[in-house]
């Protein structure tokens, strides 16, 4: 048994983790629907994995452009994948579906003062559909999601796992496990549809396990074993997803990988358009780099 579990704070973290584990499969995409998307041919008539991944990258660009949280992005991806795994969406409607999922997530997570107007969001995204189109699509999305706008995501697990692990690291060693870096790695995984088939807890554990191996934090071996057992994740599954995460991050770091493009947003808010916006939309961060460790 790892040492932190006898502390009050440690017990509370494990209690929260147990509650998440009990809920994680209730609001996840249908695996059969995701497999259909992955197997679809890119003929312009059917939804494909490539189109889905491009749409998620656009949502990531919007998230960072507006300065929204990773929680907002993760929930938007959850909404999108749940909807796509249930409905046959034509590629021409994907933009409206994606932006509607994003806006629902923004309204569920962000502070009211930070929520942009729908007109501004459509304009910045450079889509041609109307507000009425988007409002109708929001209603359709909500109906198909059974009005469940709360979902257990891999980010929530990653946050809890990170807190548990930090309890087992000295203050000096904690800088080796940078949460911002873990977040960036998870966001990169969200941009690949294959990871939407993983249990959120397993995806988060895979990202964390890889980073611990990379940083050679051998003192965390026991803590990771405990989390694996508590999360009911067998070694075979963990190894499988770790290998996919490693492949994703390796490709993502290469120049061959298509990354979210902030250039069109920089262009669309130039000049008169920028002055018309009521919010400060100029904050465009690096899209989306994985930060170095704090060494």
TrEMBL record:
Is Protein biosynthesis among this UniProt entry's keywords?
no
Q: What keywords sit in the KW lines?
A: Cyclin
Q: Which Gene3D superfamilies match?
A: Cyclin-like
Which ranges carry the Cyclin-like domain? 57-143
What does the similarity note say? Belongs to the cyclin family.
Q: What is this protein called?
A: Cyclin G1
Please tell me the species this chain comes from: Pelusios castaneus (West African mud turtle)
